[in-house]
Amino acid sequence: MNYIKKLFRFIIPYKRYGILNIIANVFYALFSTLAMISLMPMLKVLFGEGEKLNQKPIFTGFSNIKTFAEDYINYIITTTSEMHGPQRSLLYMIILIISLFLLKNVFNYLGLYFITFLRNGVLKDLRNEIYDKVTSLPISYYSEKKKGDIIARISGDVNEVKGSLLAILELIVKEPLTILFAIIAMFMISVKLTIFVFIFIPISGFIISRIGKSLKKKSNRVQTEQGIFLSTLEETLGGLKVIKGFNAEKQFNETFQKSTNRFYNFSNTLMNRQNLASPMSEVLGIITIAVLLWYGGSMVLVDQTLSGSAFIIYIGLAWQILTPAKAISKASYKVKAGNAAADRILEILETESPLKDRQNAIAKNDFTSDISVENISFKYEDDLVLKNFSIKVPKGKSIALVGQSGSGKSTIANLVTRFYDVNQGRISIDGTDIRDLKKHSLRSLMGLVTQDSILFNESIKNNLRIGKEDATDDEIIEALKIANAWEFVKDLPQGIDTNIGDSGGKLSGGQQQRLSIARAVLKNPPIMILDEATSALDTESERLVQDALENMMKNRTSIVIAHRLSTIQNADEIIVMHKGEIAEQGTHAQLIAKQGVYKKLVDMQSFE
């Protein structure tokens, strides 16, 4: 239960529900025992065992409460029977029994009612914090993790923890108190018989604990495998065109089925181990009851040290202990399963982001001078992608980065936006190292248009409002016009309120890209980063997008990463990159005149 300490902060906001649950459970446990004991006077009336008492007993203190209670009930039964007959006494006893059983169940419901708010509240806050953590962790974190595994943790694992929270509260309060009150009542009926019962309890506990020992490991295997097949599903949905185009359905089906078969086998092992808890505890309980019947029956029939009605109630109390004992054994299994799930959740929550804002980070709201990249070196894993790389981007100027795939162009965009941190050197804006700026304020100064137009299953309006939350419809339409997107948006059935489908799938590639540009235009940042924004487009779409980009880049500082060189001929400076270093730099005309690497790239693309 160590994880409860770590997750306790999620319980604190709902502690009042926890307290109310505990109070309700205390009364539930109390009335459970009283309801059972209340059957004794009725049995005494039926069997004629009750002692006749015509004088009202006097309460002499809590030390004699048992004697006082018995005498008082005998007094009521005696006087009622004499005045109205034994049937009236029986009726009163039945009303008492019904009332106590009703109170027991009312408090049982109240306990469950209050715990519902605590469990679902913890579930909500836990999911919210994991989601917040997922969005705050650096992009590099997800290059090592499967998306499906993250989804499994935020859905299945969190549910497992929710279930184990209730189990823990039952383990701590409800069931132990029910057992405790029943044992107290059993001691009051017969000390000798109760001590005899206690010999069997440690044996039962030892057997149940042995069954549950390996449960955490088995539960962890199930949850890990769930993450694997969810990852396969997520990848399948994202790559359906490729899968169908290459007739690879069979391969992916086999991969998925292998995972679900492992999940099936692991789940069977886990569930069978869990299912053993209830019958095992019941069998042990029946053995205990059988021994009780033999030993207690001797006390009634041979020794005559116990009345028949008291023995029946005693058996009832012993049987009543079985239900909470079974619940405790089940709950202990849930706790172990919840422990494995919590480990996976805490792994995400306790992951420290290397890109966290520094303690005295500055909020920068304007851009006045330049972006300076000074002698930076960077590697994703082992090999350096950039080596002692330096450029300066003055305010209002457009700098283009060109070169072969793998030359480090997109890495510059990732570093300037601080999706990654440099290994050596520094990147500064207006002379301030971007690591000394708050990430939120840094990215507020920048607009990003990527090669993949990342759109969401929302309306056009809501997709654009990611750039500016409070944008009016007129501002959205103006941004669409600048991005050459209004021409097709105005003809859509619901205009800017039209849903564009999953990842913008209802639109063409060119239309998707122009919406991405409109989103950046609406944000209206002083710095624009374009990462191969036209490379995936056909010629006609490229021309429209290129016009949109030129409209957007007017009077803005731009870093343009380009594959198609025709799109960056008007840049103020072109940087030609080769294996993470600068091969050439200058304007389009200057680089053509040099007859170097850039000229070869232009000629190759002209040939294409």
TrEMBL record:
Q: Where are the transmembrane segments?
A: 22-47, 90-115, 179-208, 283-302
Lipid bilayer topology? Multi-pass membrane protein
Acyltransferase in keyword set: no
Recorded hits in PROSITE patterns, A to Z, give: ABC_TM1F (PS50929), ABC_TRANSPORTER_1 (PS00211), ABC_TRANSPORTER_2 (PS50893)
- Where in or outside the cell? Cell membrane
> Which PANTHER family does the UniProt record give?
ATP-BINDING CASSETTE SUB-FAMILY B MEMBER 10, MITOCHONDRIAL, ATP-DEPENDENT PERMEASE MDL1, MITOCHONDRIAL
Q: What is this protein called?
A: ABC transporter ATP-binding protein/permease
User: Which species is listed as the source?
Assistant: Psychroserpens algicola
